[in-house]
Here is the input.
Amino acid sequence: MRLTVLGSNLTARHFVKYLSSEHPSVQISLWTYDEAQYPEFDNIATCLRYHGIKMLPNALLCADAVVNLHECTDFSMLPDVGKLQLHNVEVVRSLLFHCNFPLIHLSTPFLQCSHRWPNVYEPERDPVVFRPQWPFPEYCASKYEAEQLVKSASNDCYIVRSVPTYGEGDNCSILTDLIYLSNDGTVVPLGDNDGHMQMAYAGNVSVALWSAVCRLLSQSTCTDLNVSYEEELNDILSSAENSFRYQQENEKLTDGIKPGLYAIKEEDENLEGYRARHNTVRTSFDGDCDWKKGCEETEEGDVFGDDKVLQENDGAAVQENAETTYFSIIKDSTFTVQNQRIFEIFLINDDTPKKTIYNTFEQLLYNSKRLRSATQLSFIPLYYIYLLISMIIQFVIKLIGPLRFATMLPNPSFLYFYFHHWTFFNSTKSLLMLGYKPQLGFKESVSKCAQHYRELRKKDVEIFSWQNSMIYPEASNTTIAVR
Here is the structure.
């Protein structure tokens, strides 16, 4: 298999490392925006390296699939809109212009987050609903525009909304921020032991990406499974077989089930919670795809209403007051219509506990020299003081123009999400459709990356995670020209 991977962030580095160790027969073409060197990219015999926008078309040659993990993040008080547009939108536009292969595109769950209300067990949602409440408007706007480009392309595509990651090799995350601010001494906790921002081990996200690649290739009609896949053919066929098995199991589960409203327990949220939500929540943008334009539009009503007739895509009428009424994501027309474009959106996370940053990652943050302070700062008073300061800075910026130091300060929403807000997601769709299960549990994940974080020092942290991730000087080869 020939796979093109774009990006050099932590997820991309772990994905390349995973491919080289678990699937060495995969021929990797690696494209990065700059010439930065990372240990994960060294000693990979089957890897071709490309960098710069001008080399992007060459990196895409003869690929069976493309995994785009390149992105620019900026959660500062004064985001660089130009760089966000360049890296998150124009690179994707250029990629789609030169690429007609199956595509896996990395997006962000912040598109479906509210900074006002808790984001608890949310499945895949339409970002338009959350636009007025996006926590990082400029960043989210660029990622949403990229999703729209991917959605409107002719390629078979999966969009993967992965939660923030941690793991060995990490040099820019909330964990490295806390290590830097500790000054190699004491970590002072901020918050009231409340709130959680979900994160995932980068190695587990790599497994999810590989599952998505196999699933997409098993569905795509523009690939020949008998050509060039070699050892990976078994994984691809297994992905297709698993999908069929999930469909059969879901059909068995529907026997004898009567419709009704019921409480969703946290331990049951993985499967039953997703099914209950799916009746009322759109989980993908497939309703606007070109191949569905000919379908008859029907008005969405109350799922549990009486004596209403719902018209399915195959024309079969289903009475809602029938004894058994059940709608499964596996029965969606995406799976039944042949030779049509494939487009789906998945949320990716793992089993990282839902606790505060300090309690969840205490084994990574603290060592014999870096200790937890007995003093704990209350979040709410400090947050409102900082919010007032940020409003004053924003007002001054409007009067006299951009202030350089504002790019060094975090957006208030960044602090709110990581130290007070509740944000975690429902990834059952990736379990059912991709067959994704985290390869490592939380304890195993922590043990793999504990040495990296414990040995990390203040001097090793170059930038804060809320700053623009593309802070190096622009090179001469960064101009995008669609040919």
User: Anything to note?
Assistant: Residues 225-229, 257-337, 473-483 have pLDDT under 50 and may be disordered. The first helix runs from residue 10 to 22. Residues 195 and 422 are 5 Å apart (CA to CA).
